[in-house]
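Before relying on records like the one below, remember that each one covers exactly one chain. Contacts with other chains, cofactors or solvent are not represented anywhere in the record.
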Amino acid sequence: MLDLAFGEDASRKRTGNAAQNFSILGKMALNLLKKNTITKQGIKGKRLKTAYDNNYLLDILGIKV
């Protein structure tokens, strides 16, 4: 699922712990997007909406304004 959502196979992170660190961050982001049921969209649509809408981003992160 990470490869479909984040293109992990095409990643150029090879040095040190970068690949593992970004993999963990990607898994956390994917879990947050999956957990959110407000929007009936796929992961790709939720990622785009999160990028464009700050209120939706805060909702995904669980931050109340």
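The chain has a mean pLDDT of 79.
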